[in-house]
TrEMBL record, chain A:
GO terms for biological process: phenylacetate catabolic process. This is Ring-1,2-phenylacetyl-CoA epoxidase subunit PaaC. Transmembrane segments: none annotated. GO terms for cellular component: cytosol. Pfam families: PaaA_PaaC. It comes from the Bacteria. InterPro entries: Aromatic_CoA_ox/epox (IPR052703), Ferritin-like (IPR012347), Ferritin-like_SF (IPR009078), PaaA_PaaC (IPR007814), PaaC (IPR011882).
From TrEMBL, chain B:
It holds the Pfam family Zn_ribbon_PaaD. This is Ring-1,2-phenylacetyl-CoA epoxidase subunit PaaD. It comes from Lentzea xinjiangensis. Residues 118-161 form the PaaD zinc beta ribbon domain. Residues 10-72 form the MIP18 family-like domain. SUPFAM superfamilies: Fe-S cluster assembly (FSCA) domain-like.
Length: 294, 163
């Protein structure tokens, strides 16, 4: 590598050196991806979209905090957590795309709102803009990572080798995410009157979206041995949340449920008002300049 | 293949350039298939942005050593752990002012225990050796590093966090 010319070090390689995402044709290159015998591939693709979209959309939300968090270390922490989730999303969308005949970019950037399968908790606006708050984002991160960690802990035993491998890898990352959120929850809940008030308000804001996390969808019910039934996670996640809230001196909000539309929610492609704005920001560049890379 | 393995082993990690891919434990296998060199690596984190660059660096090094056809494959399972960083790698990290990770052993099956306070691992300051250090931030300049400070010599330092 030569540094005589500043541009040479950037451009003088077979793969653009700083353009991450160019070296492997896709994120499952070389991974054993045989489909297990007897599995319903359409259901498997739908399930991979559910788990992949949860990670992709929440990753987008977390990255909105970069440069807006209360301190520099937290900018970096939330961006790192977003990056882990983006990596999980890439693998899961690629797995779904093997059945659907699409690549990860087509699935991330060219689907419309009704085609996304993420839970509402991932998409709601918790800030940094108006109406949001750092306490709300920590409340969401606590609930989301506690739930996904419990899910991935069981998904390690999936009959699908890709799901099992993604879960084994992601589990350790999610453990760091949950600990980070839990430690912030205790710090804020057990901090000043103001931090306690805002942490409690954050919990109240996200709590109506908790119930959806544990509702078994027909896709999950159809994939015995491959998918995890989210209803089976409830007591473990409840135990974790109770332990954190108790250490933080916070009150568990009443169990209210956000309204569904004709019984449908995120897993059916029915989203909240926030989703369209989120997708507009996430997708517009790729749609305006198809195939753009940097 | 011994030569190909030696070349692949010597490729450096783009984000921790004091370590080779072999020191870091991400180089899993180098083999030959139908006249091609097949190198298998494993990502440190799911979203590790350096993984593409590792692949490009491996291809470049092997091609310039005369191996015309090189394929780089990813392996996700078993998942990478900092326990795979070699003893030599740990010594290189410490010499570069980065505290190496503690050994954590295999992860247990079943629910992952909750840590409400940061684990009280004793991490020695790579500058002065004091164990009187504390964590500033769990997440540092790259996904794999935390930021700590030493209360004895007052220097901040990075720590490859256990995973």
């Amino acid at each position: 590598m030569s540094f005589d010319n500043a541009y040479e070090s950037l451009l003088g390689h077979e793969d653009a050196h700083w353009a991450f995402g160019t070296g492997f044709s896709e994120p499952l290159s070389g991974v054993n991806r045989e489909f297990p015998a007897g599995v319903d591939r359409d259901a498997l693709a739908a399930y991979c979209l559910m788990l992949g979209d949860d990670a992709l959309i929440f990753s987008q939300r977390l990255s909105e905090w970069c440069s807006r968090a209360p301190e520099l270390e937290e900018d970096i922490a939330l961006a790192n957590i977003a990056l882990d989730l983006l990596g999980q999303a890439r693998m899961l969308l690629t797995r779904a795309g093997e059945v659907l005949g699409k690549d990860e970019d087509a699935l991330a950037y060219l689907r419309d709102e009704r085609e996304f399968r993420n839970v509402h908790l991932a998409e709601i606006d918790c800030g940094p803009g108006p109406g949001g708050d750092f306490g709300t984002t920590i409340a969401r991160l606590l609930v989301f990572s506690s739930w996904r960690l419990a899910l991935f802990s069981r998904l390690r035993g999936s009959a699908d080798p890709v799901l099992a491998a993604v879960a084994e890898k992601g589990l350790k990352e999610l453990a760091y995410h949950r600990d980070h959120a839990a430690q912030w929850t205790v710090r804020l809940g057990d901090g000043t009157d103001e931090s306690h008030r805002r942490m409690q308000a954050g919990l109240e804001r996200v709590w109506p979206f908790v119930d959806e996390l544990f509702a078994t969808h027909p896709v999950e019910a159809a994939l015995t041995g491959v998918a995890v039934d989210p209803a089976s996670l409830r007591s473990e996640v409840d135990g974790v949340l109770t332990a954190v809230l108790s250490a933080a001196g916070l009150t568990r909000p009443a169990d209210t449920k956000a309204a569904r539309v004709a019984g449908m929610a995120g897993r059916d492609g029915v989203h909240t008002e926030a989703m369209g704005y989120l997708l507009a920001e996430m997708q517009h560049l790729h749609r305006s300049l198809p195939g753009a890379v940097w | 293949m011994t030569k190909a393995f030696e070349i692949a082993s010597a490729v450096r990690d783009p984000e921790l350039p004091v370590l080779t891919l072999a020191d870091l434990g991400v180089l899993r296998e180098v083999s030959e298939e139908d006249g091609r060199v097949v190198v298998t690596i494993t990502p440190t984190y799911s979203g590790c942005p350096a993984i593409d660059e590792m692949g490009a660096d491996l291809r470049r090094s092997l091609r310039s050593a005369g191996f015309a056809e090189v394929e780089v494959r990813l392996s996700l399972s078993p998942a990478w752990t900092t326990d795979w960083i070699s003893a030599e790698g740990r010594a290189k990290l410490a010499a570069a002012g980065i505290a190496p990770p503690s050994r954590i052993g295999p992860s247990a099956a079943g629910p992952v225990p909750l840590n409400l306070v940061p684990p009280s691992r004793q991490v020695a300051c790579p500058q002065c050796g004091s164990l009187n250090t504390s964590e500033i931030s769990r997440f540092g300049s790259t996904a794999c590093k935390a930021l700590r400070r030493c209360h004895a010599c007052a220097e901040p330092f990075e720590h490859v966090k256990e995973i």
